[in-house]
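Dear colleague,

As promised, here are the two records you asked about, laid out in our usual form so they can be pasted straight into your sheet.

NAME FIELD: protein one
SEQUENCE, THEN STRUCTURE:
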Amino acid sequence: MSTVHSFIRHDITFPSGDSRCAGWLYLPTGVPSPPVVVLGHGLGATREMRLDAFAERFAQAGIAAVAFTYRHFGDSGGHPRQLLSIRRQLADWDAALAYVTARPDLDRTRVAVWGSSFGGGHAITVASRHPELRAAVAQCPFTDGLASALALGPVASLRMTPVLARDLAARVRGKAPVLVPIAAAPGSPALMNASDALPGYQALQPAGTSFRNEVAARVIPTIAAYRPGRAAKKVTMPILFCVSNTDSVTPPAQTLRYARTAPRGEVKRYDAGHFDFYTGETFEQLVRDQTEFLVRQLAPAAAASTP
């Protein structure tokens, strides 16, 4: 039977660009120089929205975990607020990796990345750029902006054109961003408006916290053009794709096509929706599969037996 480790959670910050990211470091007790996995979330989400649940399980398996919030969101720095910049978020990932590899209490030679939804796409991109990583996990990953835009529907996409134009004008004039909802009811203009999107996002909010369901509209064209799945073929380390068979946000057929191009890719499929991955029995199944994969790749038991 595998050991279940206790752990201590530390509040951390690390520099990124001209500001900082806030995060949590989960350190398993009794594991000197443990391996570490870095966790990043999806569109406009913060680490409080169930990243802690995954990080806790990994720490119990002897793997340190860093869950962080991107700049411009939550309690991380960055202005203007609610700015979703793919370039800056990828820089935040690089900064998180620099942070964990600089810590003397972590094993810098055994590092993995874990991303969910939009962060799952980032995890693919980051893994393709960091061959020194030992493993990657892409959970219900955003892999193709065009496929996701088609899933949203052309009418809903066209409804966002006026607010996009206003925000681009605001950026030129140096004004505050014009915001668009991240998730909304079907038929409403938003980045996601599938029937499970709004209730799904709301279900991830811990009691007593507030989630700003909005981002600067200027991100819309960059999301449509972002196709991180194309980088899967360049990911040289083992990567686990956890795919929803009924995903309303990141269409599974395209994700599976990309996953097959990863030289050392593994695929797990689940009969559950995009937003079901974070809670209930689906979460339990996912976190078991992911923990098994990360233990296999990062070998935390070897660290525990080090004198």
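NAME FIELD: protein two
SEQUENCE, THEN STRUCTURE:
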Amino acid sequence: MKIAVVGSYGAGLTMRVPRSPGAGETVSGGVFAPGPGGKGSNQAIAAARLGAEVSLLTAVGDDDFGRAAHALWRAEGVGATHVRTASAPTMVGFILVEPSGENRIAIAPGALDELDAAAVAAFREEIAAADVLVVSMEIPEEAVAAALRAGRDSGTTTLLNPAPARPLPDDLWPFIDVITPNQTEAPVLLGIGAGHGLDDEALVRALRERTGGIAVLTRGGQGALIAQESGVSATPPYPVGNVVDTTGAGDAFTAALAVALGSGHPLDHAVRYAAAAGAHAVTVAGVVPALPTPDQLAARIGTAP
């Protein structure tokens, strides 16, 4: 089973803080830990750990961060022959994690700004050979659009993880087979304001109407809602005793969903598998260390009530 990923790589510079500072405020007592990140890379690594053959398209700089990325992909079994080396530095993300596990992230895109339609065109064979194409949105809209169109042209299932969220052009919605926003991202995608008054079921229905495919609304500790042609259903959450870090949960969820769908599992089973991956991820500090293996997911699924 093959997964193609078009997305980001970046160095994650994480600081665990007693609390996030307000404007103009300095908060002491943080603990710093650098590490690899970027939604595309995280999702590629997560899918590879779960047994998929993975090809990744992203862009990095000709710098220490970029060289570390290639070493990581080799170690994790992620195919990175199409990764572009850009003239700008590798993306860097600054991440503040509070004791509750909630996080705040600021990003300097750098090399990712050079990921364009031409790079996607060179990746079309990998997209065509894949069972599922996973696209995330820390990259230019040009690359997102080119990837989704290439997936549709190739007959490959397209899965858009719309993070960080921004309104999508009307002509892109029909190219999305599966979309996986969270509760905060969904209104942004739909272009509606904070006072929209829609509940989660109405949001996921609206997303499904835009794509004509499948919408999965992730809701953290409330599980997920699935909208498909037959209607809306709920997937319950896996219980989590201690939330340590929520940073990689969405990437773990997305990758596990892609792997399960690519393996031919029914949608409800695939979302349940993805929910287990997300639940595992929040119990481990750091993004890449939190991405689960099949044995870890089997243990979590087996002990669920």
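A couple of things worth noting about protein two: The radius of gyration is 18 Å. Residues 6 and 57 are 5 Å apart (CA to CA).

Best,
R.
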